[in-house]
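Loading example: each entry is read as two labelled lines plus one structure line.
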Amino acid sequence: AQKVTQAQTEISVVEKEDVTLDCVYETRDTTYYLFWYKQPPSGELVFLIRRNSFDEQNEISGRYSWNFQKSTSSFNFTITASQVVDSAVYFCALSEFLSSGSARQLTFGSGTQLTVLP
Amino acid sequence: DGGITQSPKYLFRKEGQNVTLSCEQNLNHDAMYWYRQDPGQGLRLIYYSQIVNDFQKGDIAEGYSVSREKKESFPLTVTSAQKNPTAFYLCASKRTGRGASTDTQYFGPGTRLTVL
């Protein structure tokens, strides 16, 4: 069965520090997608990025960057020069086909609470 | 504006009562999902629907029921059979079909249910 592990339950940093959130996954599928979502205090999950299992290119979007390494089954997320507004819970998720093969299911990690202090 | 709406934002229920949580989307998405989130945990799938008039159980469907009579709407009923219903409930939707973009789920703002 698929599994997503976010070992860091809580992280606190001071504003402008860089921070990396770890994500390790397990799957038997050869084709799958990995995601990062942000959940601010309001509760809504905000989609940040999707990565195809065939695409190991790292991606940078502004202060955000993602490092996908298939060899270690990891999909880590780095925030550069963190800001107070980055404070949120961040979820890593894995999408793969259900056993019936008819639909994909998202499996979430337990989340990392990031607190950025001013 | 296109998006997913959930109502109410907060819901209080007495033990033994059924309650229905609303989820509406105007994104023209075929698939819709219900998740439950407990403190300090990730999201767990309750039910999902890929097409109107069809839905499937997720990992924790016991004590819940759904309907999908319209493409835009996927209400969730929390029945009295659900032993520990206090949680945060999130609805999501996505396109279906081929391609990576169809695999991204977009979420509503959530409903926080408390059993008194």
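Chain A has a mean pLDDT of 90.
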